[in-house]
Amino acid sequence: MAEREADRSVSQTVRAQLALRDLVLSGRLRPGERISELQAVEITGVSRTPVRMALVRLEEEGLLEAIPSGGFMVKAFSERDILDSIELRGTLEGLAARFAAERGVSSRDLEPLKECLNEIDGLVRQDPISVEAFSSYVALNARFHALLTELSRSPPLIRQIDRASALPFASPSGFVMAQSALPEARQILLIAQDHHRVVVDAIENREGARAEAIMREHARLAARNLRLALRNRTHLDLLPALALVTAG
Amino acid sequence: MAEREADRSVSQTVRAQLALRDLVLSGRLRPGERISELQAVEITGVSRTPVRMALVRLEEEGLLEAIPSGGFMVKAFSERDILDSIELRGTLEGLAARFAAERGVSSRDLEPLKECLNEIDGLVRQDPISVEAFSSYVALNARFHALLTELSRSPPLIRQIDRASALPFASPSGFVMAQSALPEARQILLIAQDHHRVVVDAIENREGARAEAIMREHARLAARNLRLALRNRTHLDLLPALALVTAG
DNA sequence: TGAAAAATTAATGTATACATTGCGTATCCG
DNA sequence: CGGATACGCAATGTATACATTAATTTTTCA
């Protein structure tokens, strides 16, 4: 199973990190299961040193949990944990939007966001929305959120948002693909896009409280998507990250 | 300078982490300065492997910054970065307070907080407040904030708050000692303690918005302290962490 | 004299051998 | 038969040798 002769341009540490992350997110390692270094060495084909580095990084990402006596295990998340992570991300993005609004942004800085908005408009115009369009939406949505975060011009906040969004189910696009199979899909996307427009408008008019509130509400769409997807359990295969979710 | 024959009960990694953290916070390593592994080995007296671990951990803490080509350097912070970090921490603590209020807490859970409040009352009663009392206040204040964070009963949020408070100048007690030399000292402490009482009251009455707002405002006291301390530059020696702050 | 290229040096990245600690098991004693 | 202790195994923690890559200096040519 080891992948030898892999790309030389990336370090062994990164390669191990990618391989182990995939393994965890795919659910082939159960939550709570210990992942030993030697086991990881066999899987990734690199030596213990970079494996160890990768494990530490994945713990920092939030996918693994350190065992007090040493070593790591796959972290388990409850549905509540996921909802809280989404609310947390929304709160941070709200703060970023408020900073942007209060501190002011040049029209030059807003340009790429508006461009992003227009491209998304082109996607959601079709009815029904194709799977490819959903895929494009995920990318554009991620770009929009990244640009918005940057507008805060606050390195500490940007750092924290990146860390909060590292968990796949907490990221802005975490549950977009999940809704692609739902009947409410298009409507939810239209609402999300309206949020996008509102927050840009609020920032432009330096309405800090409004910008903050709408980003918080925007994140709650992800929570709604999650609940809908869990109700229609037919398309859960679109959400590999849910392999980490345990009962409760 | 190496500290050999140190306590056997802690790992070499932890020892290196402590030593290097001290070195950075004391300002003996300038912001932007590269800290090589070999150099760290000489300083800490442990081998490269645990030193490397410690460097990764300190980067995660936010004290170091990874150099793209490899290695680490001491991170530089602007005054704005610090103010943003404080606002960020206040926002997260606000969210924790709101969660606690909305979800409800038992009187049993509130007990240790109220105990904490009473002990702080005993300290701020004296006028003027002794340096020892300030020291005790720092400990009790940290305890209060930790207990409050726990009340959210949200592991993802608790984790994020811990990470945000890891930077000494962003922690709840980061600038308390700085004000000990200020004439406004006692008044600020009285206000802070009022905030403490208000947030407990809000949580008890399940007033989420109020609990959130007061915690945000509470954090801004730290920002005020920082600005006061920077104006009276006479007692900056109480704040070793400011060694990391560069102009701008 | 300047700039470019090559060589040297010093740094990090990687692998592995060794040490130590925690954990499970089996045995012995009560 | 039950529990505690001791033993052995397997895991992580540590040190160091080696490989590779980045930085610096020196040398050479224009």
Brief description of this entry?
Two copies of one chain form a homodimer. By secondary structure, chain A is mainly α.
Compile the SSE list and pairings.
The structure is a homodimer of 248-residue chains.
Chain A: H1 12-25, E1 34-35, H2 37-44, H3 48-61, E2 64-66, E3 72-74, H4 79-103, H5 107-124, H6 131-151, H7 155-164, H8 176-179, H9 185-204, H10 208-231
Antiparallel strand pairs in A: 1-3, 2-3
Helix pairs in contact in A: 1-3, 2-3, 4-6, 4-7, 4-9, 4-10, 5-6, 5-9, 9-10
Chain A binds a DNA duplex (30 and 30 nucleotides) through residues 11-13, 34, 36-38, 46-50, 52-53, 69-71.
Overall description:
The structure is a homodimer of 248-residue chains. Helices cover 64% and strands 3% of the residues of chain A. With 248 residues, chain A is mainly α. Chain A folds into two domains: 12-74, Winged helix-like DNA-binding domain superfamily/Winged helix DNA-binding domain (Arc Repressor Mutant, subunit A, Orthogonal Bundle), CATH 1.10.10.10; 79-244, Four Helix Bundle (Hemerythrin (Met), subunit A). Chain A has a three-stranded antiparallel beta sheet with strand order 1-3-2. In chain A, helix 4 (79-103) packs across helix 6 and helix 4 runs antiparallel to helix 10 (208-231). The radius of gyration of chain A is 20 Å and the shape is globular. Chain A starts with 11 loop residues before the first helix and ends in a 17-residue tail after the last helix. The model of chain A is unreliable at 1-6 (pLDDT under 50). At the A-B interface, helix 3, helix 4 and helix 7 of A face helix 3, helix 4 and helix 7 of B. Chain A binds a DNA duplex (30 and 30 nucleotides) through helix 3.
